[in-house]
Write a structure and sequence with these properties.
120 residues; mainly alpha; 47% helix; 0% strand; elongated; binds heme C
Length: 120
């Protein structure tokens, strides 16, 4: 392998690595709140929230509760995610549209995994 080729491969490797290390994790206000507003807040807002579950603010979302737990670092055990994937009672309820896409659910998982950041 030529030196030039080796150097360019090394540079490429650093670029790829730094991209994944320095990419900012999802942010509540920018990335997560719009999804809640789009799919959940109609039934889980401030006024008569279904099941008492409120999803209309950061504090409400991370509030510790048996029903809606978000466990920072552990998306698969977070009920917020489990309802969306169907691992718990499916949300939004079955016949209700629109539904969050797989990519959107992945973004929420990513947000929880990174520790539920709220930079804004
Ligand atoms: C069309 C109305 C509606 C929408 C939209 C909706 N929900 Fe619900 N949600 C309900 C109702 C009704 C219940 C109570 C269900 C029950 O206890 O049978 C509920 C209950 C829940 C619970 C408690 C479940 C439990 O195990 O007790 C969670 C968590 C939840 N919803 C999350 C969400 C999330 C996340 C979204 C958006 C992705 C969402 N919901 C969208 C109507 C809705």
């Amino acid at each position: 392998m030529s030196v030039i080729k080796m150097v360019s491969l090394a540079v490429l490797g650093v670029l790829v690595l730094s991209d994944s290390i320095f990419a900012a994790p999802p942010d509540f206000q920018k990335d997560i709140q719009p999804l809640m507003t789009k799919y959940c807040v109609e039934c889980h807002g401030a006024s008569k929230p279904k099941s008492g579950v409120r999803l209309d603010s950061y504090d409400a979302l991370i509030a510790k509760s048996r029903k809606q737990s978000v466990i920072p670092g552990d998306p698969d055990k977070s009920r917020l995610v489990m309802t969306m994937t169907g691992a718990a009672k499916l949300m939004p309820p079955k016949k209700f549209t629109p539904r969050p896409t797989t990519e959107e659910i992945d973004l929420i998982k990513e947000w929880i995994k990174a520790g539920t950041k709220n930079y804004s």
